[in-house]
Amino acid sequence: MPVHIRPALADDAPLLPSVELSAAHVFRHIDGLSWLADTPTMSVERHRQLIGLSTCWVVVDADAQPQGFLSAERQRDALHIHEVSVAQSIQGQGWGRKLVETAMDCARSYPLRAVTLTTFKHVPWNAPFYSRLGFQPEGDKRLADILADEYAHGFEAGSRCAMTWWVSPSKGA
Ligand SMILES: CC(C)(COP(=O)(O)OP(=O)(O)OC[C@H]1O[C@@H](n2cnc3c(N)ncnc32)[C@H](O)[C@@H]1OP(=O)(O)O)[C@@H](O)C(=O)NCCC(=O)NCCS
Predict the structure, then answer these.
(1) What confidence tens digit (pLDDT) does each residue in 81-131 have?
(2) Structural domain for 148, as ranges
(3) Which residue among 119, 125, 126, 164 is best mutated to probe the pocket of ligand 1, counting the most ligand atoms within 8 A of its Cβ?
(4) Ligand 1 atom closest to 92 (CA)
(5) pLDDT at res. 172
(6) Which ligand 1 atom is the nearest neighbour of the CA of 87?
């Protein structure tokens, strides 16, 4: 079967940390962020937990091996994306965009009000990419708390932003 996206299964969990590690190589050439390529990945246990919520998806290759994933969970009336990672070997082929669009479709069909995330403001495949998908640089107290926690864990002050994609833009904010 060609490369495709499907809901993540518990058996995928042990395979996802190596996908995240491979994906993070893309940060090696970003000034001040190369350390991200060597930071610990999300644990297998955490992946299992999030997969159990049925709001995680994987990109699988022709050999049925996961090469990308998006982990999210429902937080209040939003689907919050914790992580999107696509292995280095298949980056730049549209799979990251398709994973985020899958989360947007899920929020639409629940229905939830929004998809939210926090990300780097100036990394080309982070905030600028989400903006092109229709995410706005805005967030509520829940997202402000997540940002505060990220800064407390060492991200450079001002480097991150919260973003929100409204399922029905007229009902947002
Ligand atoms: C972000 C990530 C998942 C994108 O995966 P991908 O499969 O390469 O994504 P796509 O091919 O769909 O590209 C996504 C967008 O990023 C842009 N992009 C991707 N790689 C890029 C690069 N090296 N330089 C500049 N822009 C890039 C593309 O132009 C595209 O935008 P568009 O669809 O509006 O044209 C992948 O780069 C990754 O795993 N990065 C490391 C982890 C990370 O940053 N996760 C996001 C955390 S919020």
Answers:
(1) 999 999 999 999 999 999 999 999 999 999 999 999 999 999 999 999 999
(2) 4-171
(3) 125
(4) 11
(5) 56
(6) 39
* SS3 (DSSP) at 173: coil
For residue 56, is pLDDT > 60?
yes
The CATH number assigned to the domain holding 158 equals 3.40.630.30
| DSSP codes of every residue in 85-104 | EE-GGGTTSSHHHHHHHHHH
Q: How many domains does the chain have?
A: 1
pTM (2 d.p.): 0.97
Q: Contact at 8 Å (CB) between 110 and 44?
A: no
23-45 per-position pLDDT tens digit? 999 999 999 999 999 999 999 99
Structure tokens at 79: 């689907």
**Best of 16, 71, 129, 163 for a ligand 1 pocket test (most atoms within 8 Å of beta carbon):** 129
Q: Which two structure tokens, joined as six digits, stand for 54?
A: 């049925």
Ligand 1 atom at minimum distance from 90 CA = 7
